[in-house]
TrEMBL record:
This is Glycosyl hydrolase. It comes from the Bacteria. SUPFAM superfamilies: (Trans)glycosidases. The lineage of its organism: Bacteria, Bacillati, Actinomycetota, Actinomycetes, Kitasatosporales. InterPro entries: GH.
């Protein structure tokens, strides 16, 4: 396998108790889950400590909880699995998990209150340091889509500016590096960062801060509703986000991590899940500089747990009883096939110019969202058999930048029939 070949992994959702398993941590259950994951041929997992359980008080990070995280990482290592850790949970599958010291009577802005941010930095530094000497520790992700707390549509957001988001990201990435120097530390937002006008977390931050750019691809964002479950735009949505992310990167070959992608029912019917999975991963790997693909998620959520959105119960590659599902079989086939051949996507010579009003703050990002002029032009090009890249309109005449990316032609959305 080429040293630059993409990684293949899964977001670990424990089969017993979902992420509440930290309350009743059972290493034997974890080992059984990891055995079923390793059986698919995957090489890494992304894991999610629940922030209120690990840091219930601003000055208390529970040693036992940290030790259990290390035990999980060591069990993964025994099965050939590397581990990325998301620190601030934050938000998972429609539920918010915030410690009491940030809420109600102690309500303080998650991103700007100095005591809160200092507590977050200490927490991330502690987790990173606990795993720093583990060879299978990839690094930290600051948190899971924590940008959703910064503005609409969250029902009770902690509003900030892009400059404040930037300062928060830099401070917490520094804390991760202090805890585990030299590891791969990053941040990850849901697609409001790319699609929502005036959202404080920006494409420029996503593509320039941290060791890699992370994208989370979910076709329930309007893509599948607008185009249909088998449309080119739907099956290329992950590839679209990867190419969109490249437009803002300062380095022409900065890696992009497809850190979350799944087949959400009923928009993707269960009988179509395997085909959607194969098409999505194949199209994503037709992009250059992909660090890895990490599917959401490993195991289905048990029906014994209440109040999840319906689609969340069936996103696993494996059932709640650890049986491999068709999507899991598809991932196993893809992994085996891709590791047997070189990863060498051809250059994307045609680029579509994206203009969101200001490259740094992105006041007009909705052009990139489903239904927006840029999104729909990109979709039309893809459907016509073109393999488009994305380039900032401000760089469309920068011949050095274009040449570094292999781009020979730039078109504007209005020029796409």
């Amino acid at each position: 396998m080429s040293p630059t070949a993409p990684r293949f992994g899964v977001n670990y959702t424990p089969s017993q108790g979902w992420f509440h398993h930290w309350l009743d941590f059972d290493l034997d259950d974890v080992r059984a889950d990891l055995d079923s994951i390793a059986g698919l041929g995957l090489d890494h997992i992304r894991v999610f400590p629940l922030w209120p359980l690990f840091q219930p008080n601003r000055t208390l990070i529970r040693p036992r909880a940290v030790d259990q995280l290390v035990q999980l990482a060591d069990a993964a290592a025994e099965r050939g699995l590397d581990v990325n850790v998301d620190g601030l949970q934050g938000h998972l599958s429609s539920f918010d998990f915030l410690p009491a010291w940030t809420q109600t009577w102690h309500r303080r802005n998650l991103f700007t209150d100095n005591d809160v941010v200092a507590g977050q930095a200490t927490y991330l530094r502690t987790l990173a340091a606990a795993l720093a000497d583990r060879p299978n520790f990839i690094g930290m992700t600051i948190g899971n889509e924590i940008n959703q707390f910064s503005g609409p549509p969250h029902p009770d957001p902690d509003r900030i500016t892009p400059a404040q988001a930037d300062a928060w990201l830099r401070r917490l990435l520094d804390a991760c590096e202090e805890g585990a120097p030299g590891k791969l530390h990053l941040h990850a937002e849901y697609d409001a960062a790319w699609y929502l006008d005036d959202h404080p977390f920006t494409p420029a931050q996503a593509a320039r801060l941290g060791g890699v750019t992370a994208v989370h691809s979910w076709v329930f964002n309007g893509t599948a509703q607008r185009h249909g479950p088998t449309a080119s735009a739907t099956e290329h949505h992950a590839a679209y986000l990867i190419e969109l992310a490249k437009a803002w990167a300062a380095e022409p070959h900065r890696p992009v991590w497809l850190q979350e992608v799944g087949a959400p029912a009923p928009l993707i019917a269960p009988e179509r899940a395997a085909a959607f999975t194969e098409a999505t991963v194949d199209n994503a790997l037709d992009c250059a500089d992909v660090w890895g693909v990490t599917w959401w998620c490993s195991h289905d959520v048990s029906r014994s747990l209440a109040d999840f959105p319906e689609l969340e119960y069936s996103l696993g590659l494996l059932t709640n009883d650890r049986e491999v599902k068709p999507a899991g079989e598809a991932i196993a086939r893809i992994v085996a096939d891709r590791r047997a051949r070189p990863y060498a996507p051809a250059p994307r010579t045609t680029a579509l110019a994206v203009d969101i009003g200001d490259d740094e703050t992105g006041p007009a990002r909705s052009t990139c969202a489903p239904g927006g002029a840029f999104f729909e032009a990109f979709a039309r090009l893809t459907e016509a058999g073109v393999r488009p890249a994305a380039v900032l309109a401000s760089r469309a005449a920068d011949q050095d930048h274009l040449a570094a990316r292999g781009i020979t032609e730039v078109v504007r959305p209005h020029q796409v029939p």
